[in-house]
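User: I'm curious what two different proteins look like when written out as structure tokens. Can you demonstrate?

Assistant: Sure. I'll show them one after the other, since each token string lines up with its own sequence. Here's the first protein:
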Amino acid sequence: MARRASFYIGVIVLLCICLFPFFIMLMTAFKGSEEAISRNQTFFPKDWTLQHFIDIFNPAIFPYLHYLQNSFIVSVTASVISVGIAIFGAYALSRLNFRGRLAINASFYTVYMFSGILLVVPLFKVIAGLGLYDTKTSLIIVMIVQTLPTAILMLNSYFETIPKDLEEAAKIDGLNRVKVIFYIIIPLSFTGIVSVFVYCFMVAWNDFLFASIFFSGAENFTLPVGLYALFSTPDYVWGRMMAASIITALPVVIMYAISENLIKGNVTDGGVKG
């Protein structure tokens, strides 16, 4: 009993430590401008206000919706392309026997050995050489490069769990490999594909490093770069920054919650059917 109580107390303490910065961010978003920078800080606002949430949607103060649109275009496009390529790449690595297959499989682990900053110079030379600097296409390409190895690795592990007998039965019924992927592999791997899509989306959505390097004009800024740019404007206010940060985090939180429910639902259905 004492061990269980200690466990739950430890979990609660850990949660409080992890969630405290988000709590402060949320409360600051509801405080007035003067109260947010006052020396006598309180946990809860003395006067609750929604003005900061209204301000960030005012194009005269901050082009939040434009940056939001750019982030969605880059994140969704890069994620769809990355997952699409990863499905065929992972299937080839999990099902086909060809020379260098094991070496390619092992090489994906080397991706984790290098940080993104090491890829900046070579990627910049490629993007500049293609004439794509300061375009959304440049960041989409970079995000595909960043997420594709991990996407293939994750889907490869997922495809390995699908019995090969199902594919053999489908081939006897006349399906070729492409049809097997669309009619057998993808439906059975739907939750895994959703998880990989969410991962790719999160990486692209939260990217600051590459977006800050490959964009020079505010027209193509995504939300992380746009929020950083807001720091250097006369309209910089803590409450607005916190409000914009909260709204920016919502799409990722919603996508994660939906994918988690899908995975849990699939596991439950699978258990019932089994």
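Here's a second, unrelated protein for contrast:
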Amino acid sequence: MLKIVTIIQARTGSTRLPNKVLFYAAGKQLLLHMVERVKKSKYSGRVVVATTSNEEDNIIEELCEKNKIDFYRGHSTDLLDRHYKTALKFDADIVVKIPSDCPLIDPQIIDRVIGYFLENIDSFDFVSNLQPPSYPDGNDVEVMTMDTLRYIWKEAKKDYEREHTTPYIWNHPDVFDIGNVNWNTGFDFSKSHRWTLDYEEDYTFIRMIYEELYHNNPNFSLYDILDLIENKPYLGRINNKHVGKFWYNDQITIAPKMRLEYGQ
């Protein structure tokens, strides 16, 4: 049986919003919310927080230990190395990469991406829902085989390839079979709905969503958030000035040979 390890990379040293993963919403720190939602995916397997070996991230280790969450500590800037060594430690066959700045991620989206990968495991080396994106920004899921992760760990040399883990795959469709999962509604909200956590306004938005929904329904979904925003449109305007900002805009060439699959 294939062993799936889902890795949530987290650190306190964010340049734009330091300590953001430790901020509170609905009485709980965002990193704990994030782990809780990822564990609700039926395919996420073993969920591990991968943080840095920097002293400032001792607090993340302490948080994980207190809440019985698996963790690994590794390189502070070479995230590819941190992912690879986390996967090695936990003996992964399949590696799922989810960033900690997605505390509103919907477990059903995680299931769709991992499920599609597993259904087509002989066809793809890597599947994500990011190229092109269609879900609201902040539902990022990338899935790859351990062999793929090992290959890029050896071959990737550029700083941004090491810093962001998967750009080497995205930029080498001649080497990898790449799949993408689109939102099955046919909508593209990736540039109009921002649910990721990078700026103070993002935190305000995410905190208010949790305060509105979590206490009555901890399992609130993507569609519950959309319904809430429709009923209270001021929520959607809180971080509107940051929509459409993606870290990979200037660093990734969208692969022309990439296979676009599922939900189209």
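A detail about the second structure: Strands lie at 4-9, 24-25, 28-29, 46-52, 70-74, 94-99, 126-128, 142-145, 178-180.
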